[in-house]
Structure formats: structure tokens, C-alpha cells
Amino acid sequence: MAELGLPAVVVGHPSGAGDLPAVWSDDAAALGETLRYLSVLGHRSIARVAGLPELDHTGRRDRAHLRICAELGLDEPILVHTDYSGEAGAQAVRGLLIGPRRPTAIVFDNDIMAVAGLSVAQELGVDVPGELSLVAWDDSQLTQVVRPPLTALNRDIPAYGTHAARTLLTLIEEGCAESVEDTPARLIPRGSTARAHAPSTPSPGANDS
After folding, report:
1. Crossing angle for the helix pair 27-40 and 56-71, nearest 10 degrees?
2. What pLDDT was estimated at residue 209?
């Protein structure tokens, strides 16, 4: 776009926008709020079902997830990359739940995968949120109509679009425009998250012969 000389605005982090103005929000801040929330609930093994690894925002979220988990003293997180589809999300969750390192919480990079993940957990008889907490990124009607409704990262999408349009109009009219940092997505707790499930303790004498 820059080579063609056409006015354009990147919806994404300025580091990946080249010389074009960008409209963005701090994904690391939103992810940090989510991971701290899950940590307070007692979760130590937190997986993330992410999008395409070659995308700039996926890489930024990956690095933030690894860094924040380390800062919080959590277990090394599991990152599973997908194509954002419900089918890929379901496959990722099935692998996590039957694998050797079953997490107690999963954060998804979109709502479609989160809903698919909830269906897989129910298919396998894994109680949500009793045994597994789920968080969707972003929020939508889908996350609110399933049962239990999904905890989600919510941002004002119309306002985001407004910032992008205004930045583009400024660029057209004035020939230059500043990048705009929008507010980070905020966590909306719902019924899919709860305190981490504690393994049951055998009663005294249960193993006596």
C-alpha cells in the first residue's frame, strides 16, 4: 500500500505497520489480566489455543503468554496453533484433554474455538468450570448463549472501527496521521471459570488391606 501511495491504516501493532499509521490495543495487558485472574483462582497449568503462528499479533500474544506465566511462577504453558476454525479448536482441545499434560484452564484466540472447546469438554465428560476453566478472546453473542456462558475478553469493536476510520480520514485530508492506541480488552468473568479443581484426597485407611 505504501509503495502504491494509497492512504491506508493498519489495524494492528505499530511494530508491524511499517510507515503506515496503526490503530491497536495492548494484547499483553489484556492477556496479563487474564492470566493473573486464573492464577488467583489457583490455576497453574494454563494452555492457549492460538491462531496462525505467522501473524504478528499471534507472535506477540505467544511471547506475552510465555513471559507472564514465567513471572507468575506458573507451569510452562502449552501453546497450540490453529487456523482459527471451530474444527481446529476442537481438535486442539481434544488433544490437550487426553494428553499427558492436561491443563486446568485454556485461553482461546477467538470465540469460535472457545465454543468448540466447550463442546469437546462436555463430550469427554470434563466439567466446566469444575475441572476446566475456559476463556474466549474475543467476546460475542456466541460466548453468552452457550451453557455455561464463557468468560471472555471484551473490547468495543465499533469504537475500534471508528478510530481506524477517523485515522484514515485524517491521513487523506492532511497527508499524515498519528497511530492510535485503543484501550485494552477487558476481562468479563462468566460461568466458564472457577477455582482450579483440587485432586481428591484418599480418606484415611482407604489403601489399607
Report:
1. 40
2. 37
State the chain's mean pLDDT as an integer: 93
Q: What distance in Å separates the CA atoms of residue 116 and residue 112, rounded to the nearest whole number? A: 6
Residue 200: pLDDT band by 50, 70, 90 thresholds? Answer: very low
- Taking Cα atoms as reference points, which of 56, 54, 118, 62 lies closest to residue 86? 118
Cα(55)–Cα(142) distance, integer angstroms: 24
Q: How confident is the model at residue 2 (pLDDT cuts 50, 70, 90)?
A: confident
Q: So what's the pLDDT on residue 199? A: 42
Q: In what order do the strands lie in the sheet with 10-11?
A: 10-11, 22-24, 180-181
Count CA atoms closer than 13 A to 54's CA, side-chain side.
1
Do residues 30 and 63 lie in contact, with contact meaning Cβ atoms separated by under 8 Å? no
Nearest to 90 by CA among 56, 46, 122: 122
> Which grid coordinates are listed for 103?
491443563
Distance, in Å, from the CA atom of 207 to the CA atom of 94, rounded to the nearest integer, reads 33
140, 145, 147, 153: CA torsion to nearest 10 = 20
pTM beyond cutoff 0.85:
yes
Q: What is the DSSP code (8-state) at residue 42?
A: T
C-alpha to C-alpha distances, 97 to 139, 147, 198, nearest whole angstrom: 24, 19, 17
